[in-house]
Design a protein that fits this description.
- The structure is a single chain.
- Strands 1-2-7-4-5 form a five-stranded antiparallel β-sheet, with no helix packed on it. Strands 30, 31, 32, 33 and 34 form a five-stranded antiparallel β-sheet that branches. A four-stranded antiparallel β-sheet has the order 9-37-36-35, with no helix packed on it.
- The termini are far apart.
- The chain has 554 residues and is mainly beta.
- It has one helix and 37 strands.
- The longest helix has 7 residues.
- Strand 16 and strand 17 form a beta hairpin.
């Protein structure tokens, strides 16, 4: 039997009386935790309910006996009237836990009711998935640690490569992966060997939020470095040998989480353009997210246009994608308790927010990702409130959505991070994500999960998906993945990964490998690295059916 006692402990933290409740919760296990959890598993649920007279964000936290913090609870949003918040902790260690609730956004006294429930079950092993021989396979290419440092730098960008973005020049086949103020170029020969060069732009002096985007069809590669309320941006058309600076952003622009993207113009096309594609710069402001459009290939940008305000969506948006029909999409994980997407069908002049009804906001969740197929089928990849990586489809630009698919179910995955989606033909798409079969709060320092990179692929417009572990013998991360900002040790991977295709529809994933060296085989030797890595499809169908048979079948 596992016993827990929930007792009022009084104010234990610096907190105005009346807006905080603090409790001590004692958990007693029949054996030491390391022994008990070898054969058993337990789930601790801390549930708060309240009724507020004004818009209130009630945050809930639990501090383990070892000092690990869980919270702020889920859902994490502002409500007026009845509200609730849950913290679910898997395999809690024994000892005295500290539990705290506070009215975070509007600090007014708010009555609440708290319960703690602990359930115990026999531990089961994750399922063994059945992967068809025809499923795409991948090879992983870590950046060359010995490549020369670029001009103006004392080191290359192989490591310290959190939140990488990836792009391909379809004209030359050259692949780029960007992180920090380094742009790494990988040239693959016919045998699949990669030659790496750090071709950092001389204009990439400051690195806050780095972004790379390729206008692949025309061979123009952009690198952008957030710099205050704008970005220092440049592009190359000769695979990084020379770089040309640009205006960087429209006005106004936000100071956080910029994104670059582009594609065909929507009909009617603007009267005056000098580049085949519309290119968008979007960023997160204080009260709204803002997008501006360039009609001259990203050299200059028009005025910034709000795409949503705080009454519609909060937090940070994901990366913009433009459909073949010119519809622009910017995803967001927090739109009134649901995940959703800002949509423009008039070349960025106006925007509408459309939510995915069954996609609930995830506490400190990473960015969702969106991509449209050749005829407009929209694929939306995200981590749901239960921590599972899921993907939903829409055939009407996000107005309605088909039932979502849990892409990690075949592996028994309980936690996902860093959703990245790319579509090709209308019925073909790939969904990459990090996954762990360990349940619980993956952002707590107590989390013991092992993470791998997975890619789920559909070739029939989402009727079926096949998910493959593309790093089966080499974990990408051990332990927690922190999405709350700051300098947490578990934030080595930062905020996202990226995915794209080459000219034949071959899928490529850019990611940071956080578990390198001794960490791969020894759980006690965690490195918290961030090694720039490209996963490149080597077999199976690509996302463009006209190139079926180009890669080996298996």
């Amino acid at each position: 039997m596992v016993a827990g006692q929930f007792t009022k402990a009084g104010i234990q933290d610096v907190c105005p009386p009346g807006v905080c409740d603090n409790y001590d919760l004692t958990i007693s296990l029949p054996q030491p935790a390391d022994t008990f959890y070898q054969t058993m598993t337990a789930t601790l649920t801390l549930h708060y309910e309240w009724n507020s007279s004004a818009p209130t964000d009630m945050d809930e936290f639990a501090i383990s006996p070892s000092g690990a913090e869980y919270g702020p609870g889920n859902p994490d949003g502002t409500v007026t009237g009845p509200g609730f918040s849950d913290i679910v902790i898997t395999d809690p260690i024994d000892g005295v836990w500290h539990v705290r609730e506070t009215a975070a956004l509007v600090p007014i006294p708010t009555a609440s009711h708290a319960t703690a429930n602990l359930t115990v079950a026999t531990r089961t092993s994750p399922p063994t998935p059945k992967i068809p021989p025809s499923a795409p396979k991948y090879a992983n290419y870590p950046a060359d640690e010995n490549m020369a440092a670029p001009l103006g730098s004392t080191a290359n960008g192989a490591h310290g490569a959190g939140e990488p973005s990836i792009g391909v020049n379809w004209k030359s086949g050259t692949v780029f992966i960007e992180s920090g103020n380094h742009t790494l170029r990988a040239i693959f020969d016919a045998a699949g060997k990669a030659t790496w060069t750090d071709v950092r732009s001389p204009f990439a002096r400051v690195s806050l939020d780095p972004i790379l985007w390729a206008d692949s069809q025309f061979g123009r590669i952009f690198e952008s470095q957030l710099d205050g309320a704008c970005s220092t941006t440049s592009y190359t058309e000769d695979d990084g040998n020379t770089w040309i600076p640009t205006e960087g952003c429209g006005t106004p622009a936000g100071p956080d989480h910029q994104t670059l993207g582009g594609g065909a113009y929507a009909t009617p096309k603007p009267a005056v353009t000098s580049w085949p594609h519309a290119i968008y710069y979007c960023s997160q402001g204080i009260a709204a997210a803002i997008c501006a459009r360039s009609d001259d290939g990203g050299t200059t940008f028009g005025p910034g246009v709000p795409i949503y305000n705080l009454t519609q969506c909060g937090g940070l948006h994901g990366h913009i994608r433009v459909a073949p029909d010119g519809t622009a999409y910017v995803p967001n994980s927090s739109c009134g308790g649901s995940q959703g997407v800002a949509v423009s069908s008039d070349n960025g002049l106006s925007w509408a927010v459309r939510t995915v009804p069954r996609a609930r906001s995830y506490r400190n969740g990473g960015d969702p990702s969106v991509s449209a197929g050749a005829n407009g089928t929209l694929y939306f990849g995200y981590v749901d409130a239960d921590g599972h990586p899921k993907i939903a489809l829409s055939s009407d630009r996000g107005v309605t959505w088909a039932k979502e698919f849990d892409a990690g179910q075949s592996y028994g995955l309980q936690n996902g991070e860093f959703s990245e989606v790319i579509a090709g033909d209308d019925d073909r798409a790939a969904f990459a994500f990090l996954g762990s079969a360990t349940p619980g709060d993956n952002q707590s320092s107590d989390f013991k999960g092992v993470w791998h990179m997975y890619v789920a692929t559909t070739f029939n417009r989402g009727k079926t998906w096949v998910t493959t572990d593309i790093t089966p013998t080499d974990p990408v991360q051990r332990g927690c993945i922190w999405n709350g900002g700051g300098s947490n040790q578990c934030r080595n991977l930062l905020d996202f990964n990226d995915i794209t295709t080459d000219a034949i529809g071959r899928v490529l994933v850019g990611y940071a490998d956080g578990c390198t060296g001794a960490c791969v085989s020894d759980p006690t030797q965690n490195t918290f690295d961030a090694w720039a890595t490209i996963a490149r499809q080597t077999t199976g169908k690509t996302l463009f059916s006209r190139f079926d048979g180009t890669l080996p079948n298996k």
